[in-house]
Amino acid sequence: MKPNEQELQEEQDILDAFEAGALKPVDNPEAMKLAHQQAAGNTFKKDARLNIRLSSRTLRALQKMALAEGIPYQTMIASVLHKYAEGRLVPSDNETRE
Asked: Percent of the chain, pLDDT > 90?
């Protein structure tokens, strides 16, 4: 999926901090890495199943979108649902709101 404006700004802020020498190394990088890996694993653990019926037209559209992003369509659908559940899914500028 393409990064949104907030993600691009966060990346720019990190790059600016790096170039300014404001970033400092952590004391125990391996422990920090392990902690982050465990948190990511827990966040995205797939421990529930969902069966859903969609129109074939909708499924084809989702599959085309996923193909354009270079990810499996089920992964993309799960990502969209996750973002919606977290309140982070927002309409794009070209979508009309009802």
From this structure: 50
